[in-house]
Prior knowledge:
Layout: H1 39-57, E1 74-77, E2 82-85, E3 88-90, H2 96-116, H3 119-124, H4 126-142, H5 145-153, H6 158-183, H7 189-198, H8 203-223, H9 225-231, H10 234-237, E4 247-251, H11 253-256, H12 263-268, H13 281-285, H14 305-317, E5 324-328, H15 329-339, H16 374-396, E6 400-406, E7 413-414, E8 420-430, E9 436-443, E10 449-452, E11 462-467, E12 471-481, E13 491-499, E14 504-512
Antiparallel strand pairs: 1-2, 2-3, 4-5, 6-8, 7-8, 8-12, 9-11, 9-13, 10-12, 13-14
Helix pairs in contact: 1-4, 2-16, 4-6, 4-8, 6-8
Amino acid sequence: MLNQTEVERLEAEAVNSAKVRQPLYAPRRKIFPKRASGSFRRFKWLVMLVTLGIYYLTPWLRWDRGPYAPDQAVLVDLAHRRFYFFFIEIWPQEFFFVAGLLVMAGVGLFLITSTVGRAWCGYSCPQTVWVDLFLVVERAIEGDRNARIKLDAGPWTARKLVLRSAKHAIWLLIAVATGGAWIFYFADAPTLFLDVVSGKAAAVAYITVAVLTATTYTFGGLMREQVCTYMCPWPRIQAAMLDEHSLTVTYNDWRGEPRSRHAKKAAAEGRPVGDCVDCNACVAVCPMGIDIRDGQQLECITCALCIDACDAVMDKIGKERGLISYATLSDYNANMALATAGGTTAIDPGRVRGTDGKLTDKVAQFHIRKLFRPRTFIYMGGWTLVGVALLYALLGRDRLEINVLHDRNPQFVTLSDGSIRNGYTVKLLNMIPEPRTIILTMQGLPGANMSVIGSDQPEDRSIAVLVEPDRLRTLKVFVRQPKEFVDGTDASFKFIVEDKSSFERDDYVATFKAPEISR
């Protein structure tokens, strides 16, 4: 156990402290976050590895759909208007599946935020992930916080030029890889890669890579925290998602104040002393450059690196971890009331500790059951309901569809033998990557038969049609009814399509128009 005076104090000042709030249009102050270590930092490494791995590697995954469909596992095929996701194939008219997923993402974001605060911002947001990646490169080349501050403040030398050039070159390579990975989602990745490097790809591919390279390099390398503070709307929206039972990163000043760098001297003089030794470790590791001890702030992305930094200091001085922790406003207020005797006195950390120097049983502690409350269940219920509805629709959807359009002019034709003929445009949709022989049948309309233009099959009530895999086939169909069956009124009948091998079936109710003279 170390004395507080033996804990290193870092010269770190918040870029926008509570004491001196910067104007909105103040010039940017560079932030040099110190590398943190601890459980939250390890979790962020894991999230970064998983998310970047998914983004960069997914276009290269293969999925065998047979000889008539692409074998890329995830593909947005704009040319043929298809979206492939492993065994799922989405057609344009099924875009409601994508809309449903977006609704689930929105409700899920509300659920996460109301439960554990801005966890999305702190761990999974692309801006956070790429800034973390760029910082890894920066630290590897220029060193940790103090070395980077010294290098930035120093004159331009050959060493500084080499280090800065190497850093920005790697940043640009990462940005190019980011843009390159994006375009691979819209075409066969191996083929497009060869076309891109050989200069044979379409201009839109190079333009897309250039735009995403510029935005990734600028947002992740140059602007960093400014994107979160000034450009992203989520910090302004999140307040509506939080309540007194939501977990947020909190400085527990009810045990940390009054802070002192000379605790033993203050205790000897009979003054109350909190656990905070004012080492500024929490400020030094913050990628947003804020001081969490100033309270909840718009700039805080709740990445929890300040918790790791503070816990390490508490370990050194022999105090309980959790001076900075995930806590709810409800627990914080209860503990603050305990430390201030219901708000009648200044904070006295002695009120939250027993004679043994440990936190008393009266101190409110977080428990996982506190997350399960009506608001959480409502969000979870809505999210589950949308998910179940999408799954039901996905499992029960038809892969064979028919659509019929009656000729508008003329609506009917009277043939030389007195029979009445109507024309229809029939569209058969085969939504699987295999060719199918579809049986087109009429049901109803006594005495009528149909014929297909371009087909050598004789006029009949049932005709076999070959439909190519994953294709729409349009047929021109004439339906003829002998004059003795025409009763002078418009009649309804069905076009039925069936695939005998898969037992799939669909139908369409059509109308047969008759001339007034027959009535």
